[in-house]
Structures are given as structure tokens and as C-alpha cells.
Amino acid sequence: MVVDEHTHVASGQLAPVWGNLTGLTVSSGSGVYLYTESGSYLDFTSGLGVTATGHCHPRVVEAIQRQAEQLLHVHLATVRHQPIFELVRELTQFMPSQLDCFYFTNSGGEAVESALRLCRQVTNRPNVIAFQGGYHGRSAVTLGLSSAKATYHRGNRPLCIGSIIAPYPLPRSRSTNLKSVAEWCLDELRMILATYSPPEDTAAVLIEPLLGEGGYVVPPRGFLKGIRAICDEHGIPLIFDEVQSGFCRTGRTFAFEHFGVEPDVLVMAKSLASGMPLSCIGAPRSTMEHWRPGSHGGTYSGNPIAVAAGTATMRVLRDEELAERARSHGGHLLRSLREVQESAASLADVRGLGLMVGCEFRDEDDLPSPQAARTIRELCLDARLILSTCGVHDNVIRWVPPLVVGAEELETGIEIFSKAVNEYESRTR
To answer: Which of the four CATH numbers 3.30.300.30, 3.30.1220.10, 3.90.1150.10, 3.40.710.10 does domain 16-53+321-428 have?
Structure first.
């Protein structure tokens, strides 16, 4: 079946639940580019934040090929394999010293669920508190903790019991004072613990240090420290979901490093293995020892090929200094997009850390404008730049280019976006 590249047409044998943001069918990828029969596209989505090392990084490809010739699969509850020990050694170099024990699985949602099961067994408590706008997966358990979009819940209720959503300092208007909102949110978290989910019933508090699907919102500096203090006061484990923000994306190895706060359990995925299905949780060995053997697992957890890709990815992140690249390019991206904002009435906010940047669009009444975000994204696509949207109202265009992006490629993307914004503004005047 021939697919029209600029329509949302897909083969009738593919489940339509996937949707199709671009209508493109790609044949290959390299670095920051995806290729179709009609030519190349700048991909600033990175497979939704996955291909931090770019498409088909040679070192990652070589590691996958080499491992495929040696061992395709074993079950870790039966035997161990050498590649997983190599990955553990590499991961340890990126971690806070207390997070010295790892459990591997396949996806971000599975890793979040693994972290929840760990904390429930450690504490013998039922409830988990997450936050508005957070996204943690779409499994039966994680769905109840994800509130980035109403569409995730529609037709899927009832949600898992024991899931509690606390308020998050989301921007409600152009004039929102996030610091004061954050203080109110901390008070509300205390109120939840006092009235609805007392500490003796609360297994964990779960949060993204930098909100992802909920709109690329950077919390005020004191917010995560306040949550950490509340958890410490009541003996509640704190889980950081760094599925999207981890591994140099924000200019540091993990987003939590920007805020001077460390978690009890860390969830990792996406950029961990450059596109191979691999995720991980890290926790102290003393915590992991409470996890009863056989109470959790998975057939494909820690697959040797995915693990080999993960090891190669960690080495590329380190050797090519991609955290530093994300800091420098991210700073330039923020400054350039804020220059665009100065002359664009619809572009209400530009925010982010490193190469994880969101552009929020609002209309003349200061209401979220998903139409503006969608139109500008489509104009960028016409100019061969792939961007995606996010946010509770889907009114945020997100920038998550591969961390290997060059200065010239980034500038090209900024120029395309600026022209698209200007065209939208001229249409709506």
C-alpha cells in the first residue's frame, strides 16, 4: 500500500490506536535525519526522546551486531550473561553512590511499575501519590498515576486502586507565579497525607523531576526539595521518573541534579539503549534485598542485545561529552526561541533544561491553543522538520533533538520554526 506522506493514512492491518503524527513512512535514519523516498527530514523528536545518540550511531550498531552473533536471549532467572555485568559497570559511573543495585526490564512503564512493586514490598503499604500532568505509562497500574492527558483514561476506567494524584505547579496563564503555586502544592501534599493517604498507608511518592508529556514544565527550585523533606519526615520512599529526562538530556546526567535532590528509587528508560527496548530501576542494595525473589520478573528483561546497546550508549554519552553538548546547544536553543517569542503573540512561554525545551502557545484570551501548536508543527513538517506536541492541552511544541545534533542542524531547525511561527501569526492577525 502506498502511503501519502502528508496524511494520516496507515495500512489497515496496523492498529489505528497508534495514530500517525506525520503520515511519513521512513526507510532509514542517520544522526539527526530520517529518510523517506522523497528525501530527508530533520528529526527533532528522537523517537520521543529515545535516540539521544542519534539514529544508528555506528558504535551502538556495531555493539548490537557483535552481540547478535554471540547470544540472542537467555532468561536472567535461569542464567546470567556477561553483557549485563558490563552495563552495570558503566551505569555505576553515572549514578549517585547509594543507587548501587539495578533491575532491568523493557519499557518505561514496566520500569515504573517495577519501582512501585519494590516500594510496596519494602513498606508493606498500598498507596502511591503521583502528580498532576505526570506521565508514567499506560499499563493497568501506571495508567492510574498518569494524568498528562484525559485521553489516556477515557474508556479505561476504573483505574487501579491506591493511585492518588496531588497538584503540581503547572502554568495556568502567562502570569502564573509558579513559586507561590509550588508552595500551595506542597501544602496540599501535606493535606493528602493528613486526610486521605496517611504515611502508614503510603508506599511511595512518584514524580518526574522535569515534567514530560504534561508540557515540559520545569518546577520551581524549592518544589522537589520540599517533597524530599516531606518524604523524609514520614519515611516515604521517593521515586524519580527520569524515563524521558535522563541520560544527559537536560545537560546533566539526570534532571534531579539541577535541583540538589536525590531519589530513593530512580526509573530510567528511553535514552538508555538508543532505541533498543531496555529500561531500568536503580535503588540501594539494602532496599532491593526486601524484594522477594520470584515476586517480579519478565521473560525478556535484560535481553543481551538490548543490554549491549545500552553499554555502547553509555560509552558514547561519556566519550562524546553529550551532557556538555546538551548544555551548550540547549542554552542557545532557549535564547533563540525566546527571541522568536518576543515578536509572537501566540508563543506564551519558552522553558526547559538542556535539549528538553517546550514552547507553549496561548490565544488572545490567554487560553491554551492546541490549534496554534498543531498548525505550526504542520508548517514545520512541510519544511522537513519533525517536531511533536505535548502538554495537558496539547498546546506545547517540544524540542528533543538527538544530543549529537550539530550547531548548523540546530540553527536550521530554529529557522524553520521561526518562519512557521511568523506564518501562523500573519494568518491570525
So the answer is: 3.90.1150.10
